[in-house]
Design brief:
Blueprint (H helix, E strand, L loop, with lengths): L11 E5 L2 E5 L5 E3 L2 H9 L6 H12 L8 H13 L5
Antiparallel strand pairs: 1-2, 2-3
Length: 86
């Protein structure tokens, strides 16, 4: 992915009985962990991959080297594959 790519979330977050689920445009669901939901929520079409990485390390209060750009890119690609990010 190029440096200037700014992923944009699609679908919506649904919370039912205390469980959070991501819902795609064609009503498929993904039961997601909190870190996946955080990643998805940060994809607002304005942040680059590096900016998303920085936000995640800040919000999770972890060292920057624990979340690599490659990991973020791979996770975003997986969410793109199921139409939760464009």
């Amino acid at each position: 992915m190029e440096d200037e790519y700014k992923p944009m979330k699609q679908g919506k977050l649904v919370e039912e009985d205390g469980r959070k689920t991501l819902l795609t445009g064609d009503n498929k669901t993904l039961a997601a962990e909190n870190t996946t939901i955080l990643l998805w929520s940060l994809c607002n079409g304005q942040r680059t991959i590096d900016e998303i990485r920085q936000e995640m390390t800040d919000k999770l209060n972890i060292k920057k080297d624990l979340i690599t750009t490659e990991l973020i890119s791979k996770s975003i690609q997986e969410l793109k594959n199921i139409q939760l990010i464009k």
